From TrEMBL:
Organism field: Flavobacterium aquicola
Organism phylogeny: Bacteria, Pseudomonadati, Bacteroidota, Flavobacteriia, Flavobacteriales
Domain of life: Bacteria
Protein name: Integrase
Domain Tyr recombinase: 231-405
Keyword DNA-binding attached: yes
Record key words, sorted: DNA recombination, DNA-binding
Length: 439
């Protein structure tokens, strides 16, 4: 059982440091300064605490008891999370207990990120045509996650990271730790490294000393062959549409699935659609939305008869994305969407996504809707039109999204097709050209 004791550094007739000694077992004993001092004449050897002979000593005694409780509580929690317990861990807990964070040291990367988090609601964010106030919740959470990762890495390496420390060697070691030890997906690890690069560039503009390498970090990403994109083909969607589903909840989820695969929007935008977003012009149905992530205004023409019927006659009720992802797997299971498909599913035992072959219905999520739309209509509808609906900023991002490489021939084929359509009503004039003979 872990124990904590306090002792004085010396018995000199002056204020001396009070040390905390954490003993977990015979091989794990750590001793550090608490940051408090006391005159030895005011120290009780019997209780290993200040004598209760004046208000100052009573307050000091209460602080030491508070620290003991705080350290032991956090010790139990962190041991359960397999966090390394060492001298740096103890130092961090002492500072956390009394909120002694080096907030003035902006050169520390975790402090800089904390400042971003603290001021997220008023932080200026560059957008097309100017700036807006406030980070999105997802962006704020991304910084919170990166700060947590860096703090854990600092505990592991027993060293605080300043912007000036971010050299190639550190980035390589951090990347290796994220992927090999923490077993993060490549793209997840990449996002943390990208956050470090972004704030390093910003920090230098504010006059903070930054390692030159930090601004030139190469951001990696998952290769196309490592990306596993789950989509539903037109044939599979028809199977789902005609499946015999009794449950009201599953039927409702099926409607969202069928709509989602025809409008090409993110799950959050899909679930915010109401009948008030629908309008008609010239007998045609249009859906107008503003995408949450990009703030782009998008208009989608809806022409699939089964989707028009759902919207007009049995509009689905809103549910949480979590429930939607759960229900659509059951919908696809009932529809026998069960082809063995390679993909990743979260494993509670390992805490990571495991790459295996699964029955396809187990891999379908609300994110499959937008990808299905983009994949199904690629090369059937001009890419520029599809990009205008999905909201991708450029064709290269769209092609990466559906795991396709640019097909230059398809552009030429489309041009020729449109040219033929433009000229199909024109009669070709044939002229006889004499070749200088009567034959």
């Amino acid at each position: 059982m872990a124990t904590i004791q306090y002792r004085l550094r010396s018995k000199a007739n002056k204020n001396v440091s009070i040390k905390i000694r954490l003993s977990i077992n015979r091989d794990n004993v750590f001793e550090l300064n608490t940051g408090f001092t006391i005159n030895p004449k005011d120290w009780s050897e019997a209780t290993s605490l200040p004598k209760q002979n004046n208000p100052e000593n009573k307050l000091l005694s209460n602080n030491l008891k508070k620290l003991e409780t705080f350290v032991l509580d956090n010790l139990n929690t962190d041991l359960g999370r397999s966090i390394l317990i060492d001298g740096l861990w103890l130092e961090t807990k002492i500072n956390d207990c009394f909120e002694r964070i080096e907030k003035t040291d902006t050169g520390l990367i975790v402090n800089y990120i904390q400042d971003i988090i603290d001021n997220s609601s008023t932080r200026k964010v560059k957008i097309k045509g100017g700036y807006k106030l406030g980070l999105s919740k997802s962006r704020e959470n991304s910084f919170i996650s990166t700060k947590s990762i860096i703090s854990e890495y600092e505990t592991k390496t027993k060293k605080k990271i300043h912007f000036i420390d971010i050299n190639e060697n550190l980035v390589d070691k951090l990347t290796n730790w994220l992927i090999k030890t923490k077993k993060y997906a490549i793209n997840t690890a990449s996002k943390h490294i990208a956050n470090i690069k972004t704030i390093s560039i910003e920090a230098e503009k504010k006059g903070i000393q930054v390692n030159a390498y930090a601004k030139q970090i190469n951001i990696f990403s998952e290769s196309d062959e490592d990306r596993f994109i789950q989509t539903l083909s037109f044939e599979e969607l028809e199977t789902i549409r005609t499946a015999d589903i009794k449950s009201e909840a599953y039927n409702n989820a099926r409607k969202w699935l069928l709509i989602g695969c025809e409008i090409g929007q993110r799950g959050g935008d899909l679930m915010n659609i109401t009948k008030e977003d629908i309008r008609y012009k010239g007998g045609n149905m249009y859906l107008d939305i503003i995408q949450q992530k990009t703030k782009k205004a998008v208009t989608i023409g809806i022409i699939a008869p089964h989707v028009i019927d759902i919207i007009e006659n049995s509009f689905p009720y809103k549910i949480s994305t979590q429930k939607l992802n759960l229900y659509i797997k059951e919908v696809c299971k009932i529809a026998k969407i069960e082809t063995l498909t390679e993909g990743k599913i979260f494993d509670a035992k390992t805490g990571r996504k495991e790459l295996k072959f699964y029955e396809k219905h187990k891999l379908i999520t609300s994110h499959s809707f937008r990808r299905s739309f983009a994949t199904n209509y690629y090369k059937k509808i001009p890419t520029a039109v599809l990009i205008g609906i999905t909201g991708h900023s450029k064709e290269s991002l769209f092609l990466t999204y559906i795991n396709q490489r640019e097909d230059k021939d398809s552009n030429a084929d489309l041009f020729m097709k449109f040219y033929e359509d433009l000229n199909k009503d024109k009669k070709t004039e044939m002229k006889l050209i004499k070749n200088g003979t009567d034959n």
